[in-house]
């Protein structure tokens, strides 16, 4: 785990509203196909997945999930909406990108973050940098106070 400051990050994104799960994975595939079809999926591409709502307190039909490509500092033209990512410090956890390892991360998140000042008003961000994907790794970015 290491700490990283996020500042002025913009993403071009697609949003889905509905129960978290298989639909989120389908949305990620939809974004990746869009990026490939528009020649935007490059060696320096970073994709984010952002669950905006707590599934324990938000009705399934209102759960929002964004997937987007980081466009900060790039001259990219696309027809997707643009939004900012919350600035601030994040604890970055690198996890093997397998269903089992990701599930274990979520299962153990309270223990992993027990000594961190987590900011529960901001969403946890899944980060998929092209360089990490090729190594079968992903990152979870936990917002800090």
From TrEMBL:
A Pfam family per the record: GyrI-like
Organism ancestry: Bacteria, Bacillati, Bacillota, Clostridia, Lachnospirales
Position of the signal peptide: none
Start and end residues of each AraC effector-binding domain: 1-145
Protein name: Bacterial transcription activator, effector binding domain
Database matches in PANTHER family: TRANSCRIPTIONAL REGULATOR YGIV-RELATED
């Amino acid at each position: 785990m290491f700490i990283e400051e996020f500042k002025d990050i913009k993403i071009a994104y697609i949003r889905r509203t509905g129960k978290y799960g298989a639909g989120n994975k389908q949305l990620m595939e939809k974004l990746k196909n869009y990026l490939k079809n528009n020649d935007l999926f490059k060696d320096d591409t970073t994709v984010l997945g952002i669950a905006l709502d707590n599934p324990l307190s938000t009705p399934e039909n209102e759960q929002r999930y964004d997937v987007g490509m980081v466009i900060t500092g790039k001259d990219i033209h696309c027809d997707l909406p643009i939004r900012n990512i919350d600035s601030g410090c994040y604890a970055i956890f690198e996890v093997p990108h397998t269903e089992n390892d990701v599930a274990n991360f979520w299962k153990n998140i309270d223990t992993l973050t027990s000594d961190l000042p987590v900011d529960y008003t901001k969403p946890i961000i899944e980060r998929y940098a092209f360089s990490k994907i090729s190594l079968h790794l992903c990152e979870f970015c936990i917002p800090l106070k």
